[in-house]
Amino acid sequence: MTLHFSCTMCGRCCRDLRVPLGLSEVLDWLRDGGEVQLLCEAIPWLVEPAADDPAAAYKFRRSFAAMSGTLPLRVVVTVVAAFEGPCPHLQPDLACGIYERRPRVCRIYPAEINPFIELRPAGKACPPDAWSDRHPVLEVSGRYVEPSLVAGIDAFRDADVGDVGAKRMLCALLRVSSTALANEGFVAVLAEREAMMRAIGAAIDRAEAIEGNACAQSWTVVSNRRRSREALASVDARAVAPEALPDQQKYLGFHASSDD
Ligand code: SF4
Ligand code: SF4
């Protein structure tokens, strides 16, 4: 299948977002007065997957090892710029006010970062006219064709992997040890801007110090589904309902709460 695309400058993709950022981008975003959140999700990692499993290798590279009780986890932390309504950098003429230094994700939209997620126009904010066959080719059979777009996606993925150690340290510094289950939701961590800037700066400086001590921090897995909590408890993980989270953390579930 071939997808054509050209941005219509409608500005729809610059509203009501959580924009994933690399840690160096986070510092710029905070200095500009923006807000960020940490989104934590965890994958139970009971057995090492096959060495030739590319999806598992992708998850492994962008996560760190942790334990919840006796259950091994891989924790993925995504730092996002969060805003309701228009992005603070969106100008009245719908241009980006920081165009030359906008985040990597803004540069590649509507392409997907995750190589295992198919680009579906229906899932994007872009209007139908942006996908007209009159426009240049964006993707052929799941492969993006524009070299600068491919380079932008690679740059984001490289930064994502390169930030893992610092994110692990960031969680330790902010005393964050609660996570949602991957595919069920996120635990979103909020912090005051100055405190977040200090913690990120320290985490980048000290990322190496935590290497080899990956499992020292015990994690709690949060779920709004009783069945998931019971399944976790049955393998000696620490599982709680969202109500147990402290004030600065909230559960963003993909599914309705369930007592079944
Ligand atoms: S930084 Fe610029 S491109 Fe990115 S969401 Fe904000 S206005 Fe849009
Ligand atoms: S939603 Fe799509 S078409 Fe509209 S500004 Fe964003 S990238 Fe361009």
Average pLDDT figure: 93
Strand content: 25-35%
- Helix/strand order, N-terminal first: EEHEHEEHEEHHEEHEHEE
Q: Catalogue the unreliable spans.
A: none
Spell out which ligands are present: iron/sulfur cluster
Radius of gyration: 19 Å
What can you see in these coordinates?
The protein is an alpha+beta fold. It has one domain. Helices cover 27% and strands 25% of the residues. Strands 2, 3, 4, 5, 8, 9, 10, 11 and 12 form a nine-stranded mixed β-sheet that branches. It is globular, with a radius of gyration of 19 Å. The model has no long low-confidence stretch (mean pLDDT 93). One iron/sulfur cluster binds at residues 14, 19, 87, 89-90, 96, 98, 102-103, 106. One iron/sulfur cluster is lined by residues 7-13, 109-110, 125-126, 130.
Labels describing this entry:
Puta_zinc/iron-chelating_dom, three-stranded antiparallel β-sheet, YkgJ family cysteine cluster protein, alpha+beta, 260 residues, 7 helices, nine-stranded mixed β-sheet, binds iron/sulfur cluster
